Every structure is written in structure tokens, then in C-alpha cells.
From TrEMBL, chain A:
It comes from the Bacteria. It comes from Nocardioides imazamoxiresistens. This is Carbohydrate ABC transporter permease. It holds the Pfam family BPD_transp_1. Keywords: Cell membrane, Membrane, Transmembrane, Transmembrane helix, Transport. Its main location: membrane. Belongs to the binding-protein-dependent transport system permease family. The chain crosses the membrane at residues 7-29, 64-88, 100-121, 127-150, 187-208, 233-254. It is found in: Cell membrane.
From TrEMBL, chain B:
Belongs to the binding-protein-dependent transport system permease family. PROSITE patterns: ABC_TM1. Residues 1-26 are annotated as: Disordered. It is found in: Cell membrane. The chain crosses the membrane at residues 43-62, 91-117, 129-150, 235-258, 284-304. Residues 1-22 have a biased composition (Low complexity). InterPro entries: ABC_transporter_permease (IPR051393), MetI-like (IPR000515), MetI-like_sf (IPR035906). The keyword S-adenosyl-L-methionine does not apply. Its main location: membrane. It comes from the Bacteria. This is Sugar ABC transporter permease. Coiled coil: none annotated.
């Protein structure tokens, strides 16, 4: 294909791809009566902030936002720490059963979340965690994906650096802490982004385990709103936009890391 | 898994081979102890919150168990019910249809877009961003936007059709159309990923091989078809595998957009398992049975695809 033709095709494809997001933004700013009169349209010519005002008046949006930051932040912190440690052990340390551990961890990637959800729920209920953020954080903290990602990175880490640290008198763990970790920034960035994104976007499990609307995170509350607002797409889209905005901004700014992470991990 | 995409991250220094036996003060046994200590938090969490519940789900499948507390062992009752359950077979069929409708199209679209945006093009960065962007949008938001687009009375798609002088389409009350709307939103959210992976793989295609084919008189289409696409085969196998797993385990989009309806026309295995367990029936045992069957099928599909992958590479 010649360049102008390719350009044209790209424009068309992107017009289609951008449509859903454009629809979300436009409807979030469209007044309710415009929707009721003429149906949803990408250009009604009428604009309003009422959808957002209504949200903030009726619901503890700021609180939900804070909850979301707290839960996603804590989960990310825990998961990055746990997976860095485990990934390094799987990549650079020799021990019996290493291959088996790796295989089992990779095997868990095929487990559908909803299949284990019933026993998982009974488990957190018996542990008395239902209604607490820990019910969300703990089961999400260790991800096979994160562990695998870390392992892949560390396999490529130069052995000479580790060796040099050992010669200088570092213990196995000391070499990891003083030499390996400071050089693993790209990995940590990617893991942080992926973990944060996954946790921020998760809605079903938090919905089941948090129970109390005051504890909801922003994306979970969106599901609550869907029922509360019924067909009021203005309010729903305003909330959808609010809950997606942090990640959309993060993505555009840190695209390079996201792309590196997604390509290397193979899983969302 | 056999994809070049799974290779090392852009790390410091050159990627080396696996670690040689370290010659340090700590012996092999000391190192093993450190290794297990470093793995312990991870394995503990995975064991308690994933492996444990998985085993538990298998046990539940052989129990008559409603809601919490102890169930009673019921042998193969759940499986017997499953075989005679029309909804289960319908869900299995729907899942298969959904998989067939999403996997090949999704992977091919990713390949097409990657080829389209691989070479220099004005605005290429923006184009790529637009196609990736849905990746960070949550499945819940994707589904809600899907509802907005395909709503029968106020939806945008029907609005556009009306502007074009066409009648309204019953996206929600017609089974096949409801399935279509779910497939469309799934593809929207997924194609960007395949494209990213293909673009990364295209970087590794040796330009000299392409050049050689061109010198031998191959046209651009032939070069793509006969040289580039075959070189991308490992990536394709990887993407088919991942998409297969995702499709077979589809939940969020269906749950929010159609909730399995109208009737059972978009009920999938996972939504059915979820409804049985968490719905009014609260039939934990039967829900787990459906889940276990789904799990087994997923594992079989994965193994099948992995075997195909390794065989073609050899």
C-alpha cells in the first residue's frame, strides 16, 4: 500500500476505535433532557456539568476515590515487593524444585478467577476479612503474572554484577538488595503500572467482598451507580469518565513503560 | 510458552544465560534456604488464596452444597445434572461461538494494524495510542459504554442508523445481535494488545531477509504473506493462546452488557457458573462443577495450542 492509502486507512480505523471513548466523554457532558429528547448523540450541541454535580451531591465520590487509591496503592506495594523477591529467587538462585515452582506458577495463569471465586469468598469470610480492604488486597497481591515478569527480567540480569557483589563480601540477599534492586528500576516501573492498573480496574471481587458502599472503590461504585441511575447515561458516563481518567492520563504519560510491560508479560 | 515477546525486559547490560553455580561463601544449601525464604511470601499468598480455593472448588463439585458451611458428599450427582442441563450445553455452545468469533478476528486485526502502523507514517504515534488506549479502560467501563452505544431506544449506534434513514436494530432483544454487540466491545478492548505484541515482534524481523525476498522479485503483498507472516509465527501462536484463554473465560462484558440474555442466548460458561454460585440459587456445589469443567477445558485447549506451537517450530 502506498503511504497516502495507509494513512487514510489508519484515520478510518482510528475513527472507529476512538468512538466509544468519545461517546463516553460527550455523554458525560450532555444534559439529561437532551438524552431523553433525541437519544444519545455525539453532537447534541448542548453541554452541562450537571451530571458531575449530581454525582458529587448524591454520592461520596471523593471517599470512593480515596478508597480506590488506598486499595490499589497497597496492593501494588505488596505485590511488587513479593514478586520482586520471588522472581529473583526463581531466576538467579539454585535450589531443588525451581522448575516445578515455575511450572505451577505458570499453571495458575489458566485458572479462571470466577471459578475459584466461590471457595475464595468462603475463605475470606471465614478469615473474617469480609468488609475490610484486606479481603481485596491479599488475594490480589500475589500474581503469577508479576512473578513471571520479574523472573524474566532477572534471568537477563548480568551475572557479573552479582558475582562482583559476592566477591566484595555481600550475602546472597545483600547482593540482591544492594546491587540488583537499584538496577531493576525499569522492571519496578512496569510491575507497578500493571499491578496498579489491574487492581484499579477490578470490580467484581471488591463488589462481593467489601459489601459496605462506604468502602467501595471508585470503579466498584460505578457498578452500584449503574443500578441506581438505571437509564441515566449522563450520570453513568460521568462516573465512568472519572474512574477511567487516572489510568488514561497515566497511560498517555507513561506509554513506553505500559507497552514494554504488556509486550513482555503477555497478560493484562 | 514460546513467544519472542516473553523474552527479557530492557534490562541493564546484556542478557546473560542462566546463573552459573556461584562460588561464594554460602554453599548450595545456604542459597536454597535464601531462595525459599524469598519465595515464601509469594507462595504463601498463591497457595492460600488461589491454589487452596482451586482444590476446594474441585471438592465442592462432588458435594451438594448450598451457601456456606459443610456440604454433603453427593458423588457424581452434579456431573449427572450437568449432562442433562440444557442451559449448560447452551452456555458451552455460546462460549464456543464467542471464542470462534473473537480469537481469529482479534488476532488478525492486531496483525493487520501492526503491519499498517509498523512503517513510518505521519501521526503514527497518535494512531497507535488510540488503538492501545482501550487496554487501560476497565472491562466495566467498556461494557457500560457498550450499553450506551447499543441501547435500543437512546443508543448511539441506532441513532446513527436512524440518521442514515435505516430502522432501529434490536441489539438487546435479539439473541444473535446481543452476541454481536458483546463481540464488538470485546474486540475493541482487545485488539490493541495483539497489535502491541505484533509491533514488538516486527522489530525483530531481519530487514535483510525482507530485502532478499524483494530482490528476488517478490511484491510487497508476497513479502508480507510469504516472508513476514511466517516469521511472526511464534508470536501468532502466543497471541492465539492468550486470546483463547481470555475468550473461554469471558465474564465481565457479558455480565454487565447482557447478563446472559435475552433468554440464555449470551450465557457463557463463566457467567453460568457465577449465577449458580452467587445468584439466588446459591448452589455452590453446582456452580463449582460448571467452573471445574470450564477449567479442565481451558487446560486442554492450552496444552493443545502449546503442542501445536512447539511442533510447528521444530
Amino acid at each position: 500500500m502506498s503511504r497516502p492509502v495507509r494513512f487514510l486507512v489508519c484515520v478510518l480505523v482510528c475513527a472507529v476505535f476512538v468512538l466509544p471513548l468519545a461517546a463516553m466523554v460527550v455523554i458525560a457532558f450532555t444534559p439529561r433532557d437532551a438524552l431523553l429528547d433525541d437519544g444519545a448523540s455525539l453532537w447534541s450541541g448542548r453541554w452541562t456539568l450537571d451530571n458531575f454535580r449530581g454525582l458529587f451531591d448524591r454520592f461520596p465520590v471523593a471517599r470512593w476515590f480515596g478508597n480506590a487509591l488506598l486499595v490499589a496503592g497497597l496492593t501494588t506495594l505488596l505485590s511488587v515487593a513479593v514478586n520482586l523477591l520471588g522472581g529473583y529467587a526463581l531466576a538467579k538462585l539454585r535450589f531443588r524444585g525451581r522448575g516445578l515452582v515455575l511450572l505451577v506458577v505458570l499453571g495458575t495463569l489458566v485458572v479462571p478467577t470466577q471459578v475459584v471465586m466461590i471457595p475464595q469468598f468462603e475463605l475470606v469470610a471465614r478469615l473474617g476479612l469480609v468488609g475490610f480492604f484486606w479481603a481485596v488486597i491479599l488475594p490480589s497481591a500475589s500474581t503469577a503474572l508479576g512473578l513471571f515478569l520479574a523472573r524474566q527480567f532477572f534471568v537477563g540480569f548480568p551475572d557479573e554484577l552479582v558475582e562482583a557483589a559476592r566477591v566484595d563480601g555481600c550475602s546472597t540477599f545483600g547482593a540482591f538488595r544492594r546491587v540488583v534492586l537499584p538496577n531493576a528500576r525499569p522492571l519496578i516501573a512496569v510491575m507497578t503500572l500493571l499491578a496498579f492498573m489491574t487492581q484499579w480496574n477490578d470490580f467484581l471481587w471488591p463488589l462481593i467482598t467489601l459489601r459496605d458502599p462506604d468502602l467501595y472503590t471508585l470503579p466498584v461504585a460505578l457498578r452500584l451507580l449503574q443500578t441506581a441511575y438505571d437509564n441515566d447515561y449522563g450520570g453513568i458516563m460521568a462516573m465512568a469518565l472519572l474512574s477511567s481518567l487516572p489510568l488514561l492520563v497515566m497511560f498517555v504519560v507513561l506509554q513506553r513503560y505500559f507497552v514494554a510491560g504488556l509486550t513482555r508479560s503477555g497478560i493484562r | 510458552m514460546s513467544a519472542p515477546a516473553l523474552e527479557e525486559l530492557p534490562g541493564p547490560g546484556t542478557p546473560g544465560a542462566a546463573a552459573p553455580e556461584p562460588r561464594g561463601s554460602t554453599g548450595a544449601r545456604g542459597q536454597a534456604r535464601v531462595a525459599w525464604a524469598m519465595l515464601a511470601p509469594n507462595l504463601l499468598l498463591l497457595g492460600v488464596f488461589l491454589a487452596g480455593p482451586l482444590v476446594w472448588a474441585f471438592l465442592m463439585a462432588f458435594q451438594d452444597k448450598r451457601s456456606f458451611g459443610g456440604g454433603t458428599w453427593s458423588g457424581l450427582d452434579n456431573f449427572a445434572r450437568l449432562l442433562a442441563d440444557d442451559v449448560f450445553w447452551r452456555a458451552l455452545l455460546n462460549t464456543a461461538i464467542f471464542t470462534v468469533a473473537t480469537v481469529p478476528v482479534g488476532v488478525l486485526m492486531g496483525l493487520g494494524l501492526a503491519l499498517l502502523m509498523d512503517k513510518a507514517l505521519p501521526g503514527r504515534g497518535l494512531f497507535r495510542t488510540i488503538v492501545y488506549l482501550p487496554i487501560v479502560v476497565s472491562s466495566l467501563v467498556t461494557s457500560l459504554v457498550g450499553l450506551l452505544l447499543f441501547d435500543e431506544s437512546v443508543g448511539i449506534v441506532n441513532g446513527v442508523l436512524a440518521d442514515l434513514g435505516l430502522g432501529a436494530v434490536s441489539w438487546q432483544s435479539d439473541g444473535a445481535l446481543a452476541m454481536t454487540s458483546v463481540v464488538v466491545m470485546t474486540l475493541w478492548s482487545r485488539v490493541g494488545f495483539s497489535m502491541v505484541v505484533y509491533i514488538a515482534a516486527l522489530q525483530d524481523v531481519d530487514p535483510q531477509v525482507v530485502e532478499a525476498a524483494r530482490v528476488d522479485g517478490a511484491g510487497p503483498w508476497q513479502v508480507t504473506r510469504r516472508v513476514v507472516v511466517p516469521l511472526l509465527r511464534p508470536t501468532t501462536f502466543f497471541l492465539v493462546l492468550v486470546n483463547l484463554i481470555w475468550s473461554f473465560q469471558v465474564f465481565d462484558v457479558v455480565y454487565v452488557m447482557t447478563n446472559g440474555g435475552p433468554g440464555y442466548s449470551t450465557t457463557m460458561l463463566v457467567t453460568y457458573a457465577y449465577d449458580e454460585g452467587f445468584g439466588p440459587a446459591r448452589n455452590f456445589g453446582y456452580g463449582a462443577t460448571v467452573g471445574v469443567v470450564l477449567f479442565v477445558i481451558t487446560v486442554l485447549l492450552t496444552l493443545l495450542q502449546l503442542r501445536r506451537g512447539t511442533r510447528t517450530e521444530a
